[in-house]
Amino acid sequence: MKALAARRHDRRAPVVLLLLALLLVGGLYAALQPAPASAAPQAASANDVTNGEKLFAANCATCHGMGATGTNAAPSLVGVGAAAVDFQVGTGRMPLAMSGPQAQRKPVVFTPEQISQLAAYVASLGPGPAIPTAEQVDASKGDPANGMAIFRTNCAMCHNAVGAGGALSQGKFAPNLWSTSNTHLYEAMLTGPQSMPVFNDANITPQEKRDIIAFIRQQGGTQPGGLSLGSLGPVTEGLWAWVVGIGLLIGAAVWIGAKSS
Amino acid sequence: MSTIDRYSGGSDELSAPEELPDRFQNPGLPPHRPRRGDLDPRADKTSERIVLALFGLSTLGTIGFLVAYFALPTGTDAGGIQRSTMTLGLALAFALLGIGTAAIQWAKSIMNDHERVEERHLMESSPAVREGAIANLEAGAADSGLSRRGLLKSAMIGSLALFPLTIVVPLIGNIGGNWNVSTFKHTMWKKGLRLTTDPSGRPIRAADVTIGSVVHVIPDGLDKAANPMDEKAKAIVLLIRLDPRDLHEADDRKGWSYNGIVAYSKVCTHVGCPVALYEQQTHHLLCPCHQSTFDVANGAKVVFGPAKRPLPQLPITVDSEGYLVAQSDFHEPIGPSFWERLR
Amino acid sequence: MTTTSTTTSRRTATRGSQGPAAASADWLDQRTGIAVAVKGLARKIFPDHWSFMLGEVALYSFITLLISGVFLTMFFVPSTNEVTYNGPWTALQGTRMSEAYASTLRLSFEVRGGLLMRQIHHWAALIFMAAIVTHMMRIFFTGAFRKPREINWVIGFTLLVLGMAAGFSGYSLPDDVLSGNGLRIAQGITLAVPIIGTYASYALFGGEFPGTALIPRLFTVHVLLIPGLLLALVGLHLAFVFLHKHTQFPGSGRTNTNVVGYPLFPVYVAKAGGFFFVVFGVIALLGATMQINPVWNYGSYDPSPVSAGAQPDWYMLFLEGALRLMPGQTEVVLGSFTVPLNIIVPAMILPGILLGALALYPFVEAYASGDHREHHLLDRPRNATFRTSFGVSLLTAFFVLVLAGSNDLIATQFHLSINDITWTFRVLLFVAPAIAFLVTKRICLGLQRRDRELVLHGHETGRIVRFASGEYIEVHAPLDEDERWLRVQQEPVRPLQIAPAEDSRGVRRKGYAADRRRQRLSQLFYEDRVEPVTPRELAAAHEHGAHPVLEPAEEAAQISAGVH
């Protein structure tokens, strides 16, 4: 196995070198310009890039065009970075199942390996935000209180105060965040998928992003006051007051008014 | 007009033809139907036992509440607080529902259940009482001399009408603070004041704002203002960078943006909610309270919902260090409409 | 003991012969003469029906509110002074917040049973308002507001409005982002009032928004002013119930001049007293298990943030819905003055019309019917066609507005476009009440006709009988007396008749136009009706139906329904 791999490596050395050079230039560019590229992309092998290219051609090029330069149906992916691919494909939003107001979370089509190959290919097309490191998305290192302060100013208007989700115009919506992985949360902030605006590292610093993740990870679980009723606010509370509260009390009133047998 | 009798009691006049009444007769109370407990002493005893058990359940609930209160600390996490709240609450519910159901069961199954009849009487007083009341009032009026001394009556009414001013005037004088309502027309933005991020207060470099970004902005030095909350309520701004190709600006506002970066008041022109839902792809800004939708690419004009006016735009530029600053205050009052906003 | 005995001897005598209870009663009566009231009220009769308990739900949730509210005031600090939080809730540790918000967190997380009391208080408020609405629906649809109870209807209506004010002032107290945005909306609406808007806003907030005066002011309003008014009016409301005696549903033995039921003591002391504990218990159950208004999720008020799903408590939702539906183009500028009709119409005029229609309905109906009699027997809703249809139509309008106030949640839960939903509700606000009116009217008239059918022809028995002529017919069993009385007892209300326009000499009389208008209104109310069966009609029906049916003696010819 090893020998085989090594031989194959040797054979493709020039390509690797070329790609590495490209990546280096891209990485330098990303580091020098104020655009949000927080870490050098994980070393993607040339193998990943070529496999990624094949996957792309088979699954994505119909809409995004050969070379990912975009068509009328879908935007160019040059410069969106590995983070965008990892988010879109890793949450099942891409490939798009059908056209609707927005791409929705669905079962993931590709294996993690294939996703990283696709990400490596798209990252190779132009510099863009990289996939965050495990350290960057470690909720235990974040400060949930600061996360809440940032979240409620920048995120709660769409995603609801605790990330339960909310409506946008024309059938679009901001999804619930409770089951979104730390890495995907980070990538979404960094890349601004679909309707979501971009929150680059100058706007919300990497530290603040981790704080937000720490805050989100505290939500959606056990509630101090009992059942959360979906954390959707006063409308659901009112609905339950009528259905359960008034329901039980009218039941009791009927019992009181009924003649005893 | 109709002259219907004051009382609608079952009219039992008989009509002549066919000797049938116009209306059916009220058949009267049906006979009492005894309960099982009224006939069978054992059923009666069972009812009593149920009531006893319910009272007992209530006592257990109270004891359970006290035990939970002393034994269960609230703890410091959601789980602990939930455990305490739920245990105390369920015990309380048992204590209450036990008493309630016991009393009702007692009333239904043990107490005498023979229906009783009580007569009603007209609400109005009898003519004699009415006449007496009027006579009394007239006698009192005569005693007071009210009808003969007109000046006295006017003086009394006048002083009664005037004295509330002693309470109303100071109340109105003070209830509105300094009554300086012109504050609705100004915010703390002024020429050269830096835009900073909300809530961190970091100044914003124009180069750091990538296309598709939204930055929630407060003026620099907000926390040092005299009334930071009041100032913040008026000065919050949304900073958005669009692809300059998408941005359509009015001729007189061409100088208000910087490299596709525009700044708009975040206070809705409808009833003042923070308008903050920016959809990057459509450049629409949606208010979560009443769904007014503003088109950021077109001077924040209203495209849907209950607002009428576009969001006021804050003219911005960069200072010598490349940080975004305001050119001036807003050119119109921010937030909801009010009567004199254009004056 | 004779009445001539001296005070001294009487005292000795009573001491010797009475137990402690009787002695205290004696003590009290000598000082208050309370025996008169006890004699009059102890065996006062109340009729039994489940729907008569709805008002009690409101009363008992109000008492629950008072009990839990007193508990909360011990720990709540109505102040906007800034403090730094260092309590147990990690998502807020170290953040700056108002004292009102911090004390709400303290009473939720650090006072044992505090969160339970807060949740009981908030659930009780929702139940209080819901119970008022259902109670009012019962009063409305059964016509219990008719003379002599019009004043009590208006008192009850005032309680509804005060309840809304109590709720709004209460949920704004914790100074969280959700309720703070509600206050901001209230301020925006205040600003919209023509001419005095800005001054009214200054008066409300003691200066600029949000200022520091509002929370303490709201606290005073919430714990003193409104509860005081509520208590006084609830007392008056109940006093009127005692004075008028409770209404009752029609039925055998129940007339307009009597009341049939059970005595206050002991039956209603036990039933109503027990029901208080049931209501409190159910609210405790809600407070124990279901989280309500988790203010720690929203954070302390700050004018910048807002959360998706920004809505008021349910009883204010119709206002929110009206604000959401109104198109913005209606804001107009007159000269140099701005008149935001896009706010004035939904926030002031529309609620004014809906609530005004509710408050004034008894007077309009009395005017249309020309009926000056006292009514203590309730209407069956089907028999009051116009009233029932109008009530359902009014409720439908409220319901559409409530749904419109929840349009963003409808959008996310059912994957719809919020813009489409808003447009749908804009149309439905006008169409749905009209449809509801017509459909309800049809249903009412249909039910009345079915009652007539039943009285005239009896119940279907499912037994098929063959006549001597060979004809088959289903046997109908006549209604028993009680069943029939329920369906024929109502007195039909007919449109008003007015005097002709001209008197005998052909002179047009004064006031004819007003009478004509009144008659038109009366026709709108009472034109469509089904008259109850009269004894004569029943006799006639029996005559027509008196076929030579094979009577039981000839059962052999009978074919059971199951056979064919």
What's this model, at a glance?
Chain A has 11 helices and 2 strands, in the order H-H-H-H-H-H-H-H-E-E-H-H-H.
Mean pLDDT of chain C: 91
CATH-defined architecture of the domain at 139-221 in chain A: Orthogonal Bundle
Number of strands of chain A: 2
Which CATH architecture of the largest domain in chain C? Up-down Bundle
- Strand count of chain C: 9
Structural class of chain C: mainly alpha
Outline of chain C, from the CA principal axes? Answer: globular
Instruction: Return the CATH class of the largest domain in chain C.
Output: Mainly Alpha
Question: What name goes with the CATH superfamily of the domain at 139-221 in chain A?
Answer: Cytochrome c-like domain
The name CATH uses for the topology of the largest domain in chain C is Cytochrome Bc1 Complex, Chain C
CATH topology of the domain at 139-221 in chain A: Cytochrome Bc1 Complex, Chain D, domain 2
Helix content of chain A: 40-55%
Distance between the termini of chain C: 82 Å
Q: Compute the number of structural domains of chain C.
A: 3
Radius of gyration of chain A: 24 Å
| Terminal residue distance of chain A | 85 Å
Give me the side-by-side strand order of the main sheet of chain A.
Answer: 1-2
Helix content of chain C: 55-70%
Strand adjacency order, main sheet of chain C: 8-7-9
Keywords:
heterotrimer; A: mainly alpha; Cytochrome Bc1 Complex, Chain D, domain 2; two-stranded antiparallel ribbon; 11 helices; C: 564 residues; mainly alpha; Cytochrome Bc1 Complex, Chain C; 3 domains; 9 strands; disordered C terminus
Textual characterization of the structure:
The complex is a heterotrimer of chains A (261), B (343) and C (564). Helices cover 51% and strands 2% of the residues of chain A. With 261 residues, chain A is mainly alpha-helical. Among the domains of chain A are: 46-125, Cytochrome c-like domain (Cytochrome Bc1 Complex, Chain D, domain 2); 139-221, Cytochrome c-like domain (Cytochrome Bc1 Complex, Chain D, domain 2), CATH 1.10.760.10. Chain A has a two-stranded antiparallel sheet with strand order 1-2. In chain A, a hairpin with a 5-residue loop joins strand 1 (166-167) and strand 2. In chain A, helix 9 packs across helix 10. Chain A starts with a helix and ends with a helix. Residues 1-9 and 32-42 of chain A have low confidence and may be disordered. Chain B has 343 residues and is α+β, with helices and mostly antiparallel strands. Among the domains of chain B are: 37-109; 184-326, Rieske [2Fe-2S] iron-sulphur domain (Rieske Iron-sulfur Protein, 3-layer Sandwich). In chain B, 34% of the residues lie in helices and 12% in strands. Chain B is built from 7 helices and 11 strands. In chain B, strands 2-3-4-5 form a 4-stranded antiparallel β-sheet. The longest helix of chain B is centred in the first third of the chain and has 32 residues, at 78-109. The radius of gyration of chain B is 38 Å and the shape is extended. By secondary structure, chain C is mostly helical. Chain C folds into 3 domains: 2-41, no CATH class; 47-300, Cytochrome Bc1 Complex, Chain C; 380-500 and 512-564, no CATH class. In chain C, strands 8-7-9 form a 3-stranded antiparallel β-sheet. A two-stranded antiparallel ribbon of chain C has the order 1-4. In chain C, helix 4 runs antiparallel to helix 6 (114-142), helix 6 packs across helix 11 and helix 17 (418-457) packs across helix 18 (481-488). The N and C termini of chain C lie far apart (82 Å). Residues 1-9 and 548-564 of chain C have low confidence and may be disordered. Chains in contact: A-B, A-C, B-C. At the A-C interface, helix 7, helix 8, strand 1, strand 2 and helix 11 of A face helix 4, helix 6, helix 11, helix 12 and helix 16 of C.
